[in-house]
Amino acid sequence: MSDRSDIRICFIGDSFVNGTGDPECLGWPGRVCVAAGYQGYNVTYYNLGIRRETSADIRDRWHQEVERRLPESCDRRVVFSFGVNDTTLENGKPRVEFRESLANARQILTQAQRSLPVLMVGPAPVGDAEQNQRIQALSVRLAELCQELGVPFLEILGPLQASVVWIAEAIANDGAHPRAAGYEELAGLVRGWSAWRNWFPARG
To answer: Rounded to whole angstroms, how far apart are CA atoms 194 and 204?
Structure first.
């Protein structure tokens, strides 16, 4: 039986989950878990974001990593976010083809939701307009897949493309990753998301 007072969350994904570029070394997962702690929740979070990883890389590693960190005795939860690296061009073509990205996501989410509460945060924009078009196409299909599977999905591409802070920080930094203020904007989107709020209802 799980201990509801011992919440443990694995955030699994790429450099945007890792928080690459954030001088405060929190990224958005750290920030949303800090906020949950201020609400009075006892949260242990594991940041399992790895730079440059694609959906194929995450498909191959996520289950073993979660098993090591989320014993059945605790309140276990998982948040996935990936896709940007799939759309990066190498030798003139995406690192992971569109259909394969969706197949990987289906396999990951289907397996995860058999035993765990699962959320998915969509892929973020970068400083390159052409890549953002590919990210947009993937984000739309990931949202459709999540709806089909019954996994809550947060679309962040549109709000962050409209964010002066996110885009400016990404361009000034390395062309893709923001710094602290950009990650705070993304964390705000997650904190305001109904599916996340359902995990951490207000106490009082």
So the answer is: 18
